[in-house]
Amino acid sequence: MTKLDAENALYAKEAWHRLGTVGEIDPFAAINAFDWCEVERSPIFVQHSEGVAFSTMNGEYYELEGRQVLKMKRHPYAYAEVSDRYQIVQHRFMIDDLTGILLDTGLVEEIASVGTYDNGAVGYVSLKFKDGIEIPGWSRVESMFNIGNGHDKNIPLIATQSGHAVVCSNTFKWNILDKEAIFKFKKIGDPQGMMEEAIRALCDGYERNVEYRKTIERMANQEFVDEQWDELVVQLIGPKPEDTTFNPWDHPLWIAGKS
């Protein structure tokens, strides 16, 4: 973690390195937490002068045609060289879109950390799930849901779960890169759209499970079950005899004898 990373890091609880801003992380304030490290494409220039060795004092700069890198908009740092097919995913997407969806669904108790390392090259968000969360298809739900993104071809847009929040490059490696990914998308095509769709599917599954549990809880209420059963009996075979007025002239045996 560099000085620039530490200045912009947010932690709900103090991390072992005692860096960053510590305190409750407001979701609305956190939306702008990654603005400082937004990137853009930039051509690559080299300095060259025929017959003269490369020097910062001599020669002219020439653009390398068809070559480009990702560079920060607000600071003098550049990252990986990328192709035209590479789709830029700003770190802001993790907090603005994905975290917003998870918060709206009610899965998240708090934002545990928002930060970067390598001067903003890699970003992460750790979200603490509420206790007792159940999601269909998941063998277990750990306490932290981590989202990572890198301005580097080696770090995709990725989501994992872990027992601890990401607070630095080491815990990013342990809790995101070394964990089996829940979702992982390369920066080709529409990685943002695919990740958002995946997160929405996760939330839909959780919400359906909540509704199923509510239904089961209602059915487990004996008074509710008895009432529903009584209504069903009436619908299928009619009201009980004592609830109707008996007319002997309408009785099937009387009608049969008369004929």
TrEMBL record:
Pfam families, per database record: DUF932
**Name of this protein:** DUF932 domain-containing protein
Q: Output the lineage of the source organism.
A: unclassified sequences, metagenomes, ecological metagenomes
